[in-house]
Design brief:
By secondary structure, the chain is an alpha/beta fold. The chain contains 13 helices and seven strands. The model has no long low-confidence stretch (mean pLDDT 95). Bound molecules: adenosine-5'-triphosphate and magnesium ion. Adenosine-5'-triphosphate binds next to helix 1 and helix 11.
């Protein structure tokens, strides 16, 4: 079975893209023994910092050629410095003694250089710059069941590489009114890019938004439930208009707001390892079951 390549993307910031990539990836690898590769495409390097200890992070800061930014630089400059086997960090996170907590969870780290990458890619209009990530990483994906792309909060050039490379898009979402209006706009922008790029990859002619994940759910009054009901209506409408996949769904359960999420990124551990009794650990375990059933349909 080829790997399923999934972009976690939303042009809104702080909606849980990185949290979903790290924690869903960790549950799929630890509980279900899936082989998961997390690819950090965000100059903020949040997934990288979350999963690495201080020394490894420092090493990556000094070795940008072992991060995703080198992939883009190589294509733009005609160099071949990026070497997947040297760059991939196998079995993250590691215990203080250096043993992998989750042997089948791998990471391709990011570097703040990605900020410059945006400008470099934008200036190169003659090449189909959005194909670069796929060209370099596709040959390495057969070793995995899932490749999760952690995207920056925009749909600029690096994100377009993720949209081109991925088989499916998952939209993390925090339910409020602004997010709802953003969801529709986002679906249109994504579809427009797909239409533009489908000449290079026919698969892009089909809507690829396959799921939404609700994050930071709070059980206070009925504000959140109303927002979720509105999102369900929106998903139904966008499905009927062909802007998202016919089988697109909101994954269950919503990930509840949980104070342990902040402390687990500080401790550089996924929440299931940081505190297996946290409510978000339970939610991510449950969501992984729904995730596997949902993506088995595609
Ligand atoms: N279930 C949760 N409960 C409480 N806090 C959460 C939860 N999920 C995520 N957070 C917090 O919300 C913030 C944003 O989450 P995250 O970094 O995953 O979002 P993002 O979409 O990747 O952000 P960015 O757009 O900056 O990349 C973080 O501080 C994270 O700790
Ligand atoms: Mg993020």
């Amino acid at each position: 079975m080829p790997a399923k390549i999934i972009a976690f993307i939303n042009f809104k910031g702080g909606v849980g893209k990185t949290s979903n990539v790290v924690n869903l990836g960790a549950v799929l690898a630890r509980t279900y023994h899936k082989r998961v590769l997390i690819v950090d495409l965000d100059a903020q390097c949040n997934a990288t910092f979350w999963l690495l200890g201080h020394a490894e992070r420092q090493r990556l800061e000094d070795e940008p050629q072992k991060t995703t930014s080198q992939i883009f630089r190589d294509h733009v400059n005609g160099t071949r410095f990026f070497d997947f086997d040297e760059a991939v960090i196998r079995g993250v996170p590691r215990s203080p003694a250096g043993n992998p907590h989750i042997p089948t969870l791998d990471l391709l780290g990011a570097h703040v250089d990605l900020l410059e990458t945006e400008d470099i890619l934008g200036a190169r209009t003659l090449q189909p710059y959005f194909t670069f990530l796929e060209k370099t990483l596709k040959p390495h994906t057969q070793a995995y069941d899932y490749v999760f792309l952690d995207c920056p909060p925009n749909i600029y050039n690096v994100s377009k590489n993720a949209l081109f490379f991925a088989d499916h898009y998952v939209i993390p979402y925090v339910p409020d009114f602004l997010s709802l209006s953003g969801f529709r706009v986002f679906a249109r922008v994504v579809k427009r890019f797909q239409d533009q790029a489908s000449g290079y990859k026919p698969k892009l002619a089909r809507p690829l938004i396959a799921a939404a994940i609700i994050n930071r759910y709070k059980n206070v009054g009925n504000v959140f439930d109303q927002a979720i009901n509105q999102l369900k209506l929106e998903v139904g409408d966008l499905r009927s208009k062909g802007l998202i996949h016919q089988k697109a769904a909101i994954l269950n359960p919503p990930i509840r707001d949980c104070s342990r999420m902040a402390s687990c990124s500080d401790s550089h551990l996924p929440v299931i390892i940081h505190d297996e009794n946290a409510i978000s650990s339970q939610d991510y375990e449950d969501m992984a079951t729904d995730f596997l059933a949902h993506f088995a349909q595609f």
